[in-house]
Prior knowledge:
Blueprint: E1 12-18, H1 21-33, H2 39-50, H3 54-64, H4 68-77, E2 81-86, H5 96-116, E3 121-123, E4 125-126, H6 132-144, E5 151-154, H7 168-177, E6 181-184, H8 194-197, H9 207-222, H10 224-227, E7 233-235, H11 237-240, H12 246-258, H13 272-278, E8 280-283, H14 290-300, E9 305-306, H15 317-324, H16 330-344
Parallel strand pairs: 1-2, 2-3, 4-5, 5-6, 6-7, 7-8, 8-9
The protein binds 4-hydroxy-3-methoxy-5-nitrobenzoic acid (1DF) and manganese (II) ion.
Amino acid sequence: MNTTAPRAYKRIATEEGWATPEMMQMYVKILETHAINDPGFYNLWGFFGKSQAPRAVDLFNRIQDMGERRLGDMDATGIDMQLLMLTSPGVQVFDAATATALAISTNDQLAATIRKHPTRFAGLAAVAPQAPQGAARELERAVTKLGLKGAVINSHTQGEYLDDEKFWDIFAAAEALDVPIYIHPNTPSPQMIEPFLSRCLDAAIYGFAAETGLHVMRLIVSGVFDRFPKLRIVLGHLGEGLPFWLYRMDFMHAGIVRANRSEGVKPLKKKPSDYLRDNFYYTTSGMAWEPSVTFVQQQMGHDRVMYAMDYPYQYVAEEVTAMDNLPLSEEHKKMFFQTNAERIFKL
Ligand code: 1DF
Ligand code: MN
């Protein structure tokens, strides 16, 4: 099938990476000076930022191009619109003041890019969880003044997770603004990465999902969704494996609560799986495989699963064809490629 042929739906890709030259230079400087303590960062960006391997050079160039090359790649694969997010780990590796300032300037640049191509691009704001009140303020500015559609947070921030209440101003802001937070993967935190490293399992092959799935489980059992019942979270990679665990997480969580095992696990108003069905949305980034997509659609509902490519990391035309060929009714296919994204992100 030709993905550029006329069709009855728009293709909106909902986890598409971009970066500013300014941030890429700051990443390269970290690589050269070894300025932070994050083994995952050096593995991931040592490849994209310093390696001369053809794939690394190609990705390093494509991620920064916000004009002809990107639009050409979208046209070549029949992508009508990209929902852009600052590539992982975004500003989360810098000190709080640097990260806060960089998020603001990055969001201004993203808004300018979108103004140039308003039918092709929409975007999520970068925020710096290192300064939670500043992050909440920037989310509000980005949504109300810049027209961005929510925020992206790349899992842990220097080893800290969002179930810590010191971060909850960010959730309060997202709930009040009624915009989603996309929890995008990061490499595992310094506390958990060690056994991943020697087998190169720390990034997209598996570590991303282990890290991000853990992060979401921490959020759920912390009770954050009882405190913010309208909070909406988007996960890529079909939910980082969690939809496969629904039965077991409920069974085990009930036992842990009953036994009063830990201060860190209090009774919840609902089952863990209920929050994954009520507060979460899922994109197919990197997971263009019919059995998995079909399973998540069955479990979570056709109104919660959206198409994503994960450009430029998984720029694969055959995957668009595979998603076009999903066994879906015309109605469900339009929801999957277009109208779910329009509704969830208010495009
Ligand atoms: C990779 C994959 C890199 C994803 C990403 O951002 C990323 C990769 C730095 O293949 O190394 O967002 N991904 O979401 O699957
Ligand atoms: Mn991604």
